[in-house]
Amino acid sequence: MTNTMKVFKFGGASVKDADAIRNVANIIKRYPDEKIMIVVSAMGKTTNALEKVVEAYSKKTGEAFALLEEVKQNHYKVATELFGADHPVFSLLNDTFVEIEWVIEDDQQDGYDYIYDQIVSIGEMASTRMLAAFLVHEQQKASWLDVRDVIRTDDTFREGRVDWETTGSLCQQKIPGLFEKNDLIVTQGFIGGTQENFTTTLGREGSDYSAAILAFQLNAESLSIWKDVPGILTGDPRLFENVQKIDRLSYKEAIEMTYYGAKVIHPKTIKPLENKNIPLYVKSFVDPDGEGTLISTDVNVTYPPVVVVEPKQVLLHISTRDFSFVTERHLGFLFQQFDKYRIKINMMQNMAISFTVCVTERSERLALLISELEKEFKLVVDRNLELITVRHYTDEIVESLAGGKIILFEEYIRGTMSMVVKEVPKMIRK
Ligand code: ASP
Ligand code: MG
Questions:
Q1: Do 215 and 70 have their domain in common?
Q2: What is the CATH number of the domain that holds 184?
Q3: Ligand 1 closest atom vs CA 266
Q4: Which has the closest alpha carbon to 298: 274, 318, 322?
Q5: Residue-wise pLDDT tens digits, 220-252
Q6: Domain endpoint, select from 227, 253, 285
Q7: Are the CB atoms for 246 and 261 separated by under 8 Å?
Q8: pLDDT single digits (tens) 31-79
Q9: CA-CA distances (angstroms) from residue 53 to 48, 228, 309?
Q10: Under the phi-then-psi rule, with left for phi > 0, alpha for psi from -120 to 50, and beta for the rest, what region is 60?
Q11: What is the number of structural domains in the chain?
Q12: What pLDDT score does 408 carry?
């Protein structure tokens, strides 16, 4: 396999309109004669807009077509700005959208998650058509790849699980030949294909993960994720003043940060890179000269405190009905239920006759879990909370973050402090 290839990932914000797409092309031109696999998300907020189409279709509100039409027109508008009124990309875009028009013309027969993936995935199909065409238009040796031909998943729709082995051999079969004739391959993030050729998605914001999968399979020399921030920061710049960029980060530190909810990169991105020791750069598409953050094997640095705030938290206080102790048998049962409903536990603690768990709000699945647990246990559910995690905490920073809030739950383990807080004191009794 080409051992000098790089993988670049461009998210929705980096391709949100015609100027943004021109900017991406300019970034790519900074790497002449390099082989680059370019993984792209849907343009701007397209995925959210397509989620509305799915909603409208499944609830039969009659608005699905109009909503889809808006998405379509937005793409045509950008295409017109990039290429003028007449260009082969229009028929490619049209083919992409027509497939979905066929889906929503019929009454819903299939499961919601299946339909979701078939509809929502066209955001990435369309954005990659646009970028690939624009790179060619700019005299780049670029080609478009349907990622569903190389990333194979099972049929867990909306959360496709990657079949690494098959994906590996599909990548070996299809990609080197494309790189012989082209320098650049543009493909979709976020989506994959099943053995039966159905489209799956890998979970919201999954394009980083797609890029890591491809980097792994192609033994890329590096992966660069281009973002609208200068790199990985010590906190969310929308929530905090004076956040700092972190220049170097170990894989371990990065995986911990993303696990606690840091939104800079998708949590699943790190493992494949770590397994093959592929460096990850998080860089700014606004300032491509900036150094960004380099994530790689352990580095000897002292980290500043890093704050991650995860909203929409729910505390479940689970207690035995008959005042008996919470035993390992109870815990075994509880963990099985969390696994069954795919609810991730962010924090937990057990006491004599109760067990408290902090999870992220996932309305439908959480409701199912709660009703299942209520068959056996007494539950008190506390919603609208925030989980604040500080890696490498100092007392000052914890104090300033906790100020004015009620701490419901806190934990200090080896340099990491986590607290679940709320603004207004209100307990909702079930
Ligand atoms: N377009 C998808 C989303 O917005 C995937 C991604 O952006 O990573 O969730
Ligand atoms: Mg996106």
A1: yes
A2: 3.40.1160.10
A3: 8
A4: 274
A5: 999 999 999 999 999 988 888 889 999 999 999
A6: 227
A7: no
A8: 998 999 999 999 999 999 999 999 999 999 999 999 999 999 999 999 9
A9: 9, 27, 30
A10: left
A11: 2
A12: 92
pLDDT exceeds 70 at position 406: yes
Share of the chain above pLDDT 90, in %: 83
Range of the domain at 16: 5-227
For residues 139 and 13, give the distance between their C-alpha atoms in angstroms, rounded to a whole number: 24
CATH number for the domain harbouring residue 390: 3.30.2130.10
Neighbouring C-alpha atoms within 13 Å toward the C-beta of 91? 3
Closest CA to 127 of 10, 34, 212: 10
Cβ pair 249, 232 in contact under 8 A: yes
Q: What's the rounded mean pLDDT across residues 287-305?
A: 91
Q: Is the CB of 123 under 6 A from ligand 1?
A: yes
Q: Which residue, chain included where needed, has tokens 């383990």?
A: 413
Atom 6 of ligand 1, residue of closest alpha carbon: 205
Dist. CA 7–CA 1, nearest whole Å: 14
Using an 8 Å Cβ cutoff, are 304 and 242 in contact? no
State the angle between helix axes of 18-29 and 64-83 in degrees (0 to 180), rounded to the nearest 10.
Answer: 50
More confident residue, 164 or 327: 164
pLDDT value at 1 more than 70:
no
Question: Which amino acid is present at 247?
Answer: D
pLDDT tens-digit readout, 116-172: 999 999 999 999 999 999 999 999 999 999 999 999 999 999 999 999 999 999 999
3-state secondary structure of 252: helix
The residue out of 194, 227, 260 marking a domain boundary is 227
117 lines ligand 1 (CB under 6 A): no
| One-letter amino acid of 193 | G
* Ligand 1 close to Cβ of residue 207 (< 6 A): yes
Are residues 185 and 333 part of one domain? no
Q: Which of 59, 169, 138 is nearest to 67 (CA)?
A: 59
Decide: 44 in ligand 1 pocket, CB within 6 A.
no
What distance in angstroms lies between residue 334's CA and the mean position of ligand 1's atoms? 32
